[in-house]
Amino acid sequence: MSTLKISNLNKTYPNGVIALDDVTIEIENGMFGLLGPNGAGKSSLMRTLATLQEADSGTAFLDDLNILQQPVELREVLGYLPQEFGVYPRITASQLLDHMAILKGITKSSERKEIVKYLLDKVNLYDKRNKSVKGFSGGMKQRVGIAQALIGNPQLIIVDEPTAGLDPGERNRFYNLLADVGKEVIVILSTHIVDDVRELCTQMAIMNLGKIVYQGAPQNAIDELQGKVYQRIVSREELQDYASEYSIISNKMVSGQPLIHIFSDTDPSNGFEPVKPNLEDVFFSKINTSNVLV
Amino acid sequence: MVYIFLGIISLLVFFAVISDNVSIGGSVGNVMRNAPHIITIYTTVLTVFGLLIATAFYNNAALRDHNNNFNEILFSTPLSKPGYFFGRFLGALLMATVPMLGVFIGVFIGTFLAPIFGWIDAERYGPFFLETFINNYFLFILPNMFIAGSIIYALANRFKSTVISFVGAMIFIVGYIVSGTLLSDIDNETIAALTDPFGVRAYSVYSKYFTPAERNMLSPGFDGLLLWNRLLWIGVGLIFLLLSYFTFSFREKNKKVKAGNIEEFKDNNTFKLPVLNTAFGRATEWLQFKSFFKINFLSIIKSVTFKILFAFSAIILIANLAGGYEYFGLQSYPVTYKIIDTVSGASGIFIVIILVFFSGELIWRDRDNKINEVVDATPHTSFVSLIAKALSLVTVTTILYFFFIICGVLYQLGNGFTAIDLSVYIKDFFMNDFVVYLTWSGLMILVQVLVNNKYIGYFVSILLIFVWDIGLLIADIQSNMLSIGGGPSTSYSDMNGFGPGLTGSLWFNGYWMLFGIISLLIAGALSNRGMGNSLAKRFKIAKKQIPNSYKVVLAATVIIFSALAGYVYYNTQVLNPYRTGDELEELSAEYEKKYKKYENATHPKITDAKYFVDIFPNKRDVYAKTELQLVNKSTEAIDSLHFNIDRDWNPKFKIPNATLSFEDKELGYLIYTLKDAMQPGDTMQVEIKTEYITKGFKNNRGNTNIVKNGTFLNNFEILPSMGYSEGREISGKNDRKKYDLPPKKRMPALEANCSDNCMANYLTNGTSDYINIESIVSTSSDQIAVAPGSLIKKWEKDGRNYFNYKLDTPSQHFYSFISAKFEVAKREWNGVDIEVYYDRQHGVNVENMIDAVERSLIYYSENFGPYMHKQCRIIEFPRYASFAQAFPGTMPYSEAIGFIINLEDETENNVVDAVIAHEMAHQWWAHQVVGANMQGGTLLSESFSEYSSLMTMKSISKTPMKMREFLKYDHERYLRGRSGELEKELPIYKVENQQYIHYGKGSVILYALQDYIGEDSVNIAMKSFLEEFRYKAPPYPTSLDFIRHLEPRVPDSLNYLIKDWIKEITLYDNRLKEASFKKLDNGKYEVSMSIEAYKMKADSLGNENKTAIDDWIDIGVFADSDEKELIYEKRVRIDQEKMDFTFQVDSLPVKAAIDPRRILVDRVYKDNVRVLQEK
């Protein structure tokens, strides 16, 4: 059982953007979801944990290993898939994975062969193993990326927006794979897709503007909202009025009409009906604290 | 962007106009700094660079909409195709010519400002001619941008790839380079002029005989080869443009869909997750290194850019090899060092491009491909990745180089040359190329890491390559320790291997290799891992993260490097200090200012010299002792002796009854005061000991005259010279001004019946006349030492060979010492020993050489008088210089020019023979009679020898046309030489040691003279002149003395020749305007010719004025188009500028010509010959 302890991590970019604002999280084995809108600081946090970026202050420990001070040691137990994953031109999938396996310290060539085959099979690219990666579609490249992140014996797996570009079938395969390995190690999964977290993660955090605005089990968060979320379909013209009158969590179009969710401790009536809150409501209620139309 | 380029070009030209240190396409010389010719050179050369600008513009014009994905929007609008296509093109064309206008701006501003600020005198600037600018714009700027543009635009439209567009640009560069190669052989001039897409070569052919005056006046015109070149290439451009237009379409091509991208679900295999053992240590790092290396290496050799660069350099290599090694119409054997030079030449610039381009490419590859975060987050050390990158670069360039070597070797074998020593290739590679690749790879990777921006990185790399050395030059720093990858040159000689630079080169190599490794180590520590960090930040991170072992390695490397640097510094600066160019110039100025006052001091003359020279080839040391007998041949008493000292030779004097009264160590000037003045006629014995000790190694190659095999010294090196030495003065007009020195005195003016001013000859300059010389030379036991004179005695002592040589007849004090491992070939001719001392690898031409010597001996002794020595030696010396030189009875001959020329198919005259004949002739002309140190002096030695040489050639020529082949080089030498004249051209009888006059014109004029007045007449004139002055005590003869002997031999009808050809500068412009023939009933052919003939007199600046013609000139007819068979020739009197001639010939005429054997000096000979039209 390992623990990743992040304490008071801060990072401000030279242009003044605050990427990490006193971030403190503790993560144990299993899948950990990191939710947040674009620009919330998810990637900054993950890069910091992946030793690719320095923090201004704060600490991060994987058990006894000081991530910020011992990057070399951390890299030996890290699996990382960044948000943007490209490939070398003129090199095949197996060659690329073999190269990555070497970089990750698998010195025996037989072992490398095995793991490369195994992973390629797992990401459903075994038949394409001798094709140039450059010609792969976005989804296929992403799968190569996933495969490389799992090479070796990673204790900490960080995957940043892994399912972007994958079709639903592939997404499922990927989650199964991740869930397989995630039982014994820490997997941090960043995403802005709420469903991903709901389906996979036992623990989660929501980030916004560099801050952790929620941390805990997804179900707990949903429970907190129980009985406080209402919805109704409004006309487009009325939307503004509702926005000023109620604490809107979200609005989305249903059959061409805005469907708004609002947060209210009491029943607002006025055509609103209570709904069973879902993780999406949690997400929006946590990040949309000023209750503006999004 | 346009304005930036405009600014850059303006600045470049501006500096070239106002400063002597900056030159574009060669130095300006004594032409006006803003002369039309100079402006044209700037324009043409800069359009080559402008090509890259144009490529960017055109590529952008063609691809902008495409790259911004705007094309789909734009092309769906009702836009007309011609409007779009040509609109874009013309826009880019106009834009591309704008930066080139910077040439004009730079010239204008420079010309205006330089005199005002006193940078350069106003007199160095002439008027502007509107024509220059207009013609340059329409001849070069606009057409070049059009031609380049049309092809690049076509490529860009077709391939939509920036890389391919730049490839298109490279084709031009290759064309330019190949045409340059062609130009080196004068027979290929026309092809060269036409194949250069920029017209630069066409212009150089067009203007090659321009005299300084013409360079100041004439703008390039729309005529001749220049026009043809322009029309040809504009046509090519048009074709490309139209082809492109007709294939251009707004519609997108159907994108190919790769079948492989459709997914197949086939999952029959099952795999198990293996148990993985990860390990991190040295072994892993080695494995990681190999993996990185493989990936980087493949990425380079598979890249399109590499393949293109490879193809281009291969094309250049093959073109160069195919051209062979031409040497005055002959081919040199493809000896290994020549192949090495060719390979280096063909690969050099491309390897630099590969190093620059791929250093950036490899460093940025991960980031460009967005795989950097993944790779950076893996447990490898940055250094492993970097060193893999550096080594993959080095490996790729090495492979490229070896591929070329293989091509070279195949070429050698293909030519039947089998004396190939592969180890020379390999050694040369490691000595001269490998280190450079390694150093630059390390450095450029460091640059990319530090700068952290690919394109700025490229920029800095290019600055380092091209500007750094210029910077050093401007700062007057010559140390190779600062010139990246620099070191002593080690050009290979068959005789002497890698030569005196070898040791130094090896040490410098170590120094630079460590420099490259340190660069890499620093780059490894500071490389950007993860998110981009500022350099300061990376320093901090490095401090924290770099393991101690890394620091130890870095520190150790730096320590070794410093130690090495210290050792190199000690050798190159302390042990062997040198003076930089500027320092030497300053010293020369100071020398002149301080000691010019002694210029006319009287000195005794040397009458006897005995040399004791001990050569130690392996240590490269020489010890010499010289006993001189001095006689006061003047009419006044001499109270002191002045010497110029060469520090390297450390002379020690033993002068009886004399004291050292003045010593200037810095400038090397000594004065010994004699206790009792030498009275006229007094004699004195002096002993001078000198020694040259080689210590360590030097910054540059070091002394190439004292080497392990092939030492070649002369008396001027061994002995300190006596009296003020005018040769040390600064000669450049403008350099002299810089030091406030008065204009340099020209050679003494020619004087009739001179006595006092003719007491010194131009060879020994008054220090001696004809003297007795004896020498005892020793060398190592495996070498032979040779000096002029008969070998009196030879013995061995203490494991060394001793030789005692003595001249049989008093000679010029012009004496050589040579020592090497020699083979000797001998033949006797009338009691004269003909001997060739040659390297054992170079025996192939020895028999030919002996033949040539014998032929010269026969012709000269028959026509001029007896040969005065008992032996006649040709002695090979290493290729550090390429000349042959005539010492008394002894001719050192460079390995580079005669011994390796292929003479297998040469039955008639050839240049190897010609050089020998020339040097042999010096045994008469220079050694038996020599001119006074006065204008016209070299006519009597160099022109006479060149003429004599031609006559031996002629004596074995089977056809009269063969000599034309030979004379063309002399015509070329003269006409080209006069166009590069820096001071003033003089008539031949007043030649001031100007080579193009005494060799080029001298041989042409004297050869023509014997053709007009008869070989015997000229020879008799020369012989009687020789007889009057042979070995005669001063006063020495002048050219007027020769004319005195010549005049009686010239018939009255041809008296004008002496005036026109010898006493004035006369050129002919003969043209055959029309030529036709018709067959007559009697079976003969009637030939009609219309000729034009003009005669011009030129002044010293090359201004030519027509003068009335009344000359005898040949007309003739050839029976073949190769102009080999001259079936009719007649010398006719031409007294009008336009004349017609009709005559009959017996067999079918093909070509007609005026002056068919090219006897006269005619700047354009081509228009003298025409194919006959049948009427």
How would you concisely characterize the structure shown here?
Chain A has 294 residues and is an alpha/beta fold.
User: What's the story with the biggest beta sheet of chain B?
Assistant: 7 strands, mixed
At CATH level 3, the topology of the largest domain in chain A is: Rossmann fold
Trace the largest sheet of chain A across and list its strands: 6-7-8-3-9-10
Strand order of the largest sheet of chain B: 6-9-4-3-12-15-14
Q: What is the element string of chain A, with H for helices and E for strands?
A: EEEHEEHEHHHEHEHEEHEHEEEH
Explain this structure to me?
The complex is a heterodimer of chains A (294) and B (1175). Chain A is of the alpha/beta class and 294 residues long. Chain A folds into two domains: 3-222, Rossmann fold; 224-287. In chain A, 33% of the residues lie in helices and 29% in strands. Chain A has helices at 42-49, 71-75, 93-103, 109-122, 138-149, 168-182, 194-200, 218-225, 239-245, 279-287, and strands at 3-12, 18-28, 30-35, 57-62, 65-66, 78-81, 156-160, 186-191, 203-208, 211-216, 229-233, 247-254, 257-263, 273-274. Chain A has a six-stranded mixed β-sheet, with helices on both faces. In chain A, strands 2-1-4-5 form a four-stranded antiparallel β-sheet. Among the domains of chain B are: 2-252, no CATH class; 282-575, no CATH class; 1065-1175, Immunoglobulin-like (Sandwich). Helices cover 47% and strands 17% of the residues of chain B. In chain B, the strands form seven sheets. A seven-stranded mixed β-sheet of chain B has the order 6-9-4-3-12-15-14, with no helix packed on it. In chain B, strands 22, 23, 24, 27 and 30 form a five-stranded mixed β-sheet that branches. The longest helix of chain B is centred in the N-terminal third of the chain and has 33 residues, at 336-368. Mean pLDDT of chain B is 88; it is low at 254-267. Classes of the chains: A alpha/beta (294), B alpha+beta (1175). At the A-B interface, helix 2, strand 6, helix 3, helix 4 and helix 5 of A face helix 12, helix 15 and helix 20 of B.
